[in-house]
Amino acid sequence: MAYFETHQLTVGYTQGKRTVKVLSDLNLSLERGHLVALLGQNGAGKSTLIRALTCAAKPLEGTITIAGQNLQELTQRERSRLIAIVSTDRISAGALTVTELVALGRQPHTGFLGRLSDEDHERVAQAIKDVGIDHKATSYMAQLSDGERQKAMIARALAQATPIIVLDEPTAFLDVASRIETMQLLHSLAHDHQKAVLLSSHDVSQSLLMADDLWLITRDREVLTGSTKHIIDSGAMQHIFTSKNVEFNPQLLDFQYVRP
Amino acid sequence: MRQSLTIIILAALLALLAVACLLYGSVDIPAQAVLDVVMGNSSGNVAWDIIVGQSRIPMIATAALAGAALSVSGLLLQTTFNNPLAGPSILGVSTGAGLGVAIVMLATGGTVSTLLGTTAGSYIATLLGALVGAALVLVILIAFAAIVKSNTMLLIVGILISYLASSVISLLNSVANEEGIHSYVTWGFGNFSGVSADQMPIYVIIIVMALVATTFMIKPLNALLLGTRYAENLGVNTHRTRNILLLITGVLTAVVTAFCGPIGFLGLVVPHVARFMTATSNHARLIPATILAGADVALLCTLISVNGAHGIIPINAITPIIGVPIIIYIIVNRKRINYFN
Question: What ipTM was assigned to the predicted interfaces of this complex?
Answer without folding.
Answer: 0.94
